[in-house]
Write a structure and sequence with these properties.
about 110 residues, alpha/beta, seven-stranded mixed sheet, 3 helices, globular
């Protein structure tokens, strides 16, 4: 479950941003997660949160030719009832990471602690 991002490298240091216009995946940097509250994560995913069992790896491409330059592990945070509440299937997560989840996702750098 790996993904290479080239266009977004400069935004990696931002605290929280979305990977797509539908806001189905939010990326949360290491520095921001210390300030985020449980309630904020619940608001983003639309309910109680759950950590998906397997993390994903993102390769941050800093050069126009090769990848990876910078590698980070991200926990996948989802709504624990996304599937049974009939939230929309998150096709982008499947396309990028081969992960089947429903609803909005937070990718949390360094994982939950």
């Amino acid at each position: 479950m790996n993904y290479c991002i080239s266009k977004l490298y400069n935004t990696k240091r931002k605290h929280l941003f979305t990977l797509d216009e539908n806001k189905s995946i939010y990326l949360m940097g290491e520095h921001f997660k210390e300030d985020i509250r449980l309630k904020t994560m619940q608001d983003i995913v639309g309910g109680y949160i759950e950590r998906y069992p397997d993390p994903v790896t993102i390769f941050w491409d800093t050069s126009p030719i090769s990848c990876p330059e910078d590698i980070d592990q991200y926990d996948i945070i989802v709504n624990e009832e996304g599937m049974i509440r009939d939230y929309p299937y998150n096709g982008l997560m499947n396309e990028l990471f081969d992960v089947d989840v429903w609803g909005t996702v937070i990718l949390l750098e360094g994982g939950l602690k």
